[in-house]
Amino acid sequence: ASELLLPLLEFEGVLVRVVLGEGQNLLSMLLSGELDLVLSDRRVTEAQRTGTVEVSLEGPRLVVLAHRDLVKEGKPEELKELPFVQFTPGSRFRWEVERYFELRDLFPRIVAEVDDIGLLLAAARRKLGAIVVPESSVEIARYPELRRVDRVTEAGMDLYLTYVSSEPTDLVRRAIEVLSAEAKRTSGAAD
Known about the structure:
Layout: H1 23-31, E1 38-40, E2 52-58, E3 62-67, E4 83-86, H2 94-103, E5 109-113, H3 117-125, E6 131-134, E7 146-151, E8 158-164, H4 170-187
């Protein structure tokens, strides 16, 4: 989601403040006027929804990568034999990766749990194991030693933008438009 926010940093004359936190705390900050928008991978519950509007954005597609020396043919079956660097249990991607492996009857040996995309890519480049990363975060041409083995999610995983339901400001409307366009671009929805 952090890449998605980059276009907001380009807004002229606007101080963009990005706050990380638990959904309920962020929602409270939104309702108190401390925040203009909340971007989350979790929907606002019906009980929390009073006074807010939620917009669904398509999130990133996930791809499996491995070093070319570890996957000769670049087929998903080869993952059975490989070590795997997995996302931590708190990552929003963890469940999708586990589901991907279960559906294909693949149970790779987890050698580490990491949420940092740069560290995941470095691990794969050092042949420490296969990885899964958002497709938008890696330009495979920059990493010729890595091979794309498969796509974990055909459609992106949804993200949710929440704002206060009273008339949104021009800035909030503009931010929603920019974030929606960036979500489509980075998810590959234009494919």
